[in-house]
Design a protein that fits this description.
The protein is an all-alpha fold. Helix 2 runs antiparallel to helix 3.
């Protein structure tokens, strides 16, 4: 720490291994617990070492600041409350979305079942209708064949009488 306070000594450069701010970095990186405890140990050694009497008031003030800054961080209660409120709100929103998705799934299942029952009813009705009126279906098929034959004959007559319409 005496190096830090002395204007004649060059400023120490921290390496990226310590995740500290280097002389060229724009913003500090978070300090790991091991780095924090190492810094505190070094400052405490300086304070309680044989050179206590050699510390100037400014160096003493700097050591106090380093110790204060390297204390275990105390969580901000307002931030914790806001985070808890946000988590609660997000949880409620998630539960609402899950409930809506389940309702939608149930609605789709009910609709699918309704379509299946309607299809079964129509098939049953058609098969019942065929069973009770098989001759009517045969009549319809004969009528259709007759109409197709008539249509073919009429086309031939039109093409023979008007060759330019081809």
């Amino acid at each position: 720490l005496a190096h830090l306070a002395s204007p004649a000594s060059p400023a120490p450069r921290w390496t990226q291994d310590t995740h500290m701010r280097t002389a060229s970095s724009a913003s500090p990186q978070p300090i790991h617990d091991s780095d924090r405890s190492h810094m505190r140990t070094r400052v405490n050694d300086m304070i309680h070492g044989d050179k206590v009497s050699q510390l100037t008031p400014r160096e003493k003030q700097l050591t106090d600041m380093v110790l204060r800054l390297t204390d275990e961080p105390i969580p901000d209660t307002d931030q914790l409350i806001r985070q808890a409120d946000t988590i609660t709100s997000l949880t409620l929103h998630r539960d609402l979305l899950l409930h809506q998705a389940e309702e939608q799934r149930l609605r789709w299942a009910a609709e699918r079942d309704g379509w299946a029952r309607m299809a079964e009813a129509l098939v049953a009705q058609q098969s019942k209708h065929r069973a009770t009126n098989p001759e009517r279906e045969d009549d319809i098929e004969r009528l259709n064949a007759s109409l197709e034959s008539d249509n073919k004959n009429l086309r031939q007559k039109v093409s023979e009488s008007h060759p330019d319409l081809r």
